[in-house]
């Protein structure tokens, strides 16, 4: 039996609820159910404040994100407009006589690239028409298209037949040849890296039979052999003081060392400055001579040859050579000369280069990767296992007897350092490379200077190979050394490398986009080059973030190296032209001044002579620079071959996008952008 409802309690409860509505309220939507919730007034206000604050914070976050987006968009827009203005300015100023004269040298290769660009653009237009007509998905055949009235479809059907039967097979054959060469060169690179790891793991390095103490005053002077130090230079206005000071501060008995300043400058003002610097050090008691040639025949080789013909050279046993931008440490001779003791068949001790401006811009960082691998891996491995490598032309010490025995300096190529190294090797002399002895120098900071340097470095070896090939075959060295010189030193590393780099990535890859019957595997485009880039960057671990720009830039430089290789091999254009690499004087001038001031021995009676001479020399230098400031305007340039290849690769990337080839598309896109950046001279030093 159910209990009767209590109406009195219900009426009392309703009165209390209306009276205290802020404490008790009903949230139920069902009137038959009674729900009671107790809420504090303070907690309600806090919740409302938190809700208001959260909404306000959300609004501020949205506004901040919007502001960041607007700032990023404005920055990208400004950068793009600045890029367009820079390109427009360089295009409008690229028709100067100096630019035109420099452009004529590579006109043959440029004409070929330009014709290739025209063909590629026409093929892209044709493929776009076929794509929008649906022929990519259902390609017409010659038989079916003959019954169709559409002339364009008939032409496209015949084009498909021609490229499948006649164009793709030879392209595929060339592709296979380049892939084989690429793999051979990659295997060589892997073996070099493994050899370097073995040297590091076993801690192998040349050992000298003696060492010089740091205190040379208490030692017998006769224990120090006679050393000739040579600094060849030509119009080295920016760096002559630093190199002369570094050499004159060598910790070596002064009566056992003679410094030759071999000046080939045709600038009278620079000659005056160098003469004044030499006189300053002569007054300090340094045995230093100034030599100047009236006729600059043979460039650097002719300069060194002329200096070695002096009568007093016969009194010296060794000669150390430094370019004008090099700064050897005070103990350079003490660290290199001891290796000649007890090694009568040793001709050369080569040291490593260290760069004072390797972090100056992107171009110098990429150069540092290349040269770090060259010294850490190539020179060290070849020096340890076969006692032969190419002389780097500077920061090395030669035995004068070895130079004379192999014929001395010859003027027949633009790589006189490699020339004399090969001839000394054929005469049976051995070389030693010291990776732990470093000599400061400067990297070219502008793309123009770097390009000219690379052209000389890659045309000269082909000149030398053509001249000394018969001498290698007739030499008395072992068959193994002959094979190493011909196949590895010259063919693989000097000829095949620039050939396949340019042909494979700048010619074949774009063509395979328009001739899809010829296949270039993705592992050739991406994976193996990426692995080789990782190996190249190991000696410079700080440069790991630049591995992708390094890979793309090396492919971009292949056009310069290929052009230089062809011109040197067939004696084309300006292959024998020697252009001095432009320096900016980034070497550590303050360190040299500190070294001079910290010398314990007084150099001259008048202690103020050095400072006064230095200040007067700097004042005179500034005055001469101001007089010549407006004579030659320094500016960035445009590079036609690189720009043409940029448009070829970007055009091919559009074609690959139609075929949905992912890796090929991205590689062509970024490689084309890299060519565009280099062609607009945006990678190195920027002149406002």
From TrEMBL:
<feature type="transmembrane region" description="Helical">
    <location>
        <begin position="109"/>
        <end position="132"/>
    </location>
</feature>
<keyword id="KW-0328">Glycosyltransferase</keyword>
<feature type="transmembrane region" description="Helical">
    <location>
        <begin position="485"/>
        <end position="514"/>
    </location>
</feature>
<keyword id="KW-0812">Transmembrane</keyword>
<feature type="transmembrane region" description="Helical">
    <location>
        <begin position="174"/>
        <end position="199"/>
    </location>
</feature>
<keyword id="KW-0333">Golgi apparatus</keyword>
<dbReference type="GO" id="GO:0000139">
    <property type="term" value="C:Golgi membrane"/>
</dbReference>
<comment type="similarity">
    <text>Belongs to the glycosyltransferase 2 family. Plant cellulose synthase-like C subfamily.</text>
</comment>
<keyword id="KW-1133">Transmembrane helix</keyword>
<dbReference type="GO" id="GO:0071555">
    <property type="term" value="P:cell wall organization"/>
</dbReference>
<feature type="transmembrane region" description="Helical">
    <location>
        <begin position="638"/>
        <end position="657"/>
    </location>
</feature>
<dbReference type="GO" id="GO:0016757">
    <property type="term" value="F:glycosyltransferase activity"/>
</dbReference>
<dbReference type="InterPro" id="IPR001173">
    <property type="entry name" value="Glyco_trans_2-like"/>
</dbReference>
<protein>
    <recommendedName>
        <fullName>Glycosyltransferase 2-like domain-containing protein</fullName>
    </recommendedName>
</protein>
<feature type="transmembrane region" description="Helical">
    <location>
        <begin position="663"/>
        <end position="683"/>
    </location>
</feature>
<dbReference type="GO" id="GO:0099402">
    <property type="term" value="P:plant organ development"/>
</dbReference>
<keyword id="KW-0472">Membrane</keyword>
<keyword id="KW-0808">Transferase</keyword>
<dbReference type="InterPro" id="IPR029044">
    <property type="entry name" value="Nucleotide-diphossugar_trans"/>
</dbReference>
<keyword id="KW-0961">Cell wall biogenesis/degradation</keyword>
<feature type="domain" description="Glycosyltransferase 2-like">
    <location>
        <begin position="319"/>
        <end position="514"/>
    </location>
</feature>
<dbReference type="Pfam" id="PF13632">
    <property type="entry name" value="Glyco_trans_2_3"/>
</dbReference>
<dbReference type="GO" id="GO:0048868">
    <property type="term" value="P:pollen tube development"/>
</dbReference>
């Amino acid at each position: 039996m159910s209990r009767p409802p209590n109406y009195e309690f219900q009426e009392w409860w309703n009165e209390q609820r209306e009276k205290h509505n802020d404490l008790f309220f009903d949230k139920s939507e069902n009137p038959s159910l009674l729900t009671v919730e107790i809420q504090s007034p303070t907690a309600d206000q806090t919740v409302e404040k938190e809700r208001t604050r959260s909404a306000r914070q959300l609004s501020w976050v949205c506004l901040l994100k919007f502001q960041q987006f607007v700032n990023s968009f404005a920055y990208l827009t400004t950068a793009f407009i600045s890029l367009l203005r820079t390109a427009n300015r360089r295009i409008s100023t690229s028709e100067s006589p100096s630019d035109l004269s420099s452009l004529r040298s590579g006109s043959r290769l440029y004409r070929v690239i330009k014709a290739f660009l025209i063909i590629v653009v026409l093929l892209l237009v044709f493929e776009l028409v076929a794509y929008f007509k649906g022929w990519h998905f259902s390609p017409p055949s010659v038989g079916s298209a003959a019954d169709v009235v559409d002339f364009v479809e008939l032409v496209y059907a015949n084009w498909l037949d021609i490229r499948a039967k006649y164009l793709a097979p030879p392209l595929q054959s060339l592709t296979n040849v380049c892939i084989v060469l690429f793999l051979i060169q990659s295997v060589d690179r892997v073996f070099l890296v493994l050899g370097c790891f073995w040297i590091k793991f076993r801690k192998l390095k040349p050992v000298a039979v003696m060492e010089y103490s740091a205190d040379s005053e208490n030692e017998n002077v006769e224990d120090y052999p006679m050393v000739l130090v040579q600094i060849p230079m030509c119009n080295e206005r920016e760096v002559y003081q630093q190199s002369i000071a570094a050499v004159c501060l060598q910790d070596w008995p002064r009566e056992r060392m003679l410094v030759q300043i071999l000046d080939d400058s045709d600038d009278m003002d620079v000659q005056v400055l160098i003469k004044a610097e030499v006189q300053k050090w002569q007054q300090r008691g340094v045995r230093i001579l100034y030599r100047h040639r009236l006729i600059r025949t043979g460039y650097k080789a002719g300069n060194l040859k002329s200096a070695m013909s002096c009568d007093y050279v016969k009194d010296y046993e060794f000669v150390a050579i430094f370019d004008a931008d090099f700064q050897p440490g005070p103990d350079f001779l003490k660290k290199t000369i001891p290796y000649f003791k007890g090694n009568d068949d040793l001709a050369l001790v080569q040291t490593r280069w260290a760069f004072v401006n390797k972090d100056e811009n992107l171009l110098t960082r990429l150069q540092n990767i290349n040269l770090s691998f060259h010294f850490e891996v190539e020179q060290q491995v070849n020096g340890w296992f076969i006692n032969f490598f190419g002389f780097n032309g500077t920061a090395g010490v030669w035995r004068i007897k070895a130079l004379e025995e192999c014929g001395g300096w010859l003027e027949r190529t633009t790589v006189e350092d490699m020339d004399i190294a090969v001839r000394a090797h054929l005469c049976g002399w051995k070389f030693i490379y010291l990776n732990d002895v470093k000599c400061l120098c400067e990297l070219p900071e502008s793309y123009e200077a770097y390009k000219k340097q690379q052209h000389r470095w890659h045309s000269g070896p082909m000149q030398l190979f053509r001249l000394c090939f018969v001498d290698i075959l007739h030499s008395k060295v072992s068959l193994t050394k002959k094979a190493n010189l011909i196949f590895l030193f010259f063919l693989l590393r000097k000829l095949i490398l620039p050939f396949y780099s340019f042909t494979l990535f700048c010619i074949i890859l774009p063509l395979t986009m328009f001739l899809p019957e010829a296949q270039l595997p993705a592992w050739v485009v991406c994976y193996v080059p990426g692995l080789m880039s990782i190996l190249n960057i190991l000696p410079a671990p700080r440069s790991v973030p630049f591995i992708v720009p390094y890979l793309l830039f090396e492919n971009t430089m292949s056009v310069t190296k290929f052009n230089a290789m062809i011109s040197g091999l067939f004696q084309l254009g300006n292959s024998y032209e020697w252009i001095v690499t432009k320096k900016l004087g980034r070497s550590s001038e303050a360190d040299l001044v500190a070294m001079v001031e910290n010398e314990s021995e007084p150099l001259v009676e008048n202690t103020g002579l050095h400072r006064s001479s230095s200040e007067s020399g700097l004042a005179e230098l500034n005055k001469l620079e101001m007089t010549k400031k407006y004579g030659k305007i320094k500016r960035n340039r445009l590079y036609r071959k690189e720009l043409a290849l940029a448009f070829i690769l970007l055009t091919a990337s559009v074609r690959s996008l139609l075929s949905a080839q992912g890796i090929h598309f991205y590689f062509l896109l970024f490689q084309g952008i890299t060519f565009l950046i280099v062609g607009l001279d945006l990678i190195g030093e920027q002149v406002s």
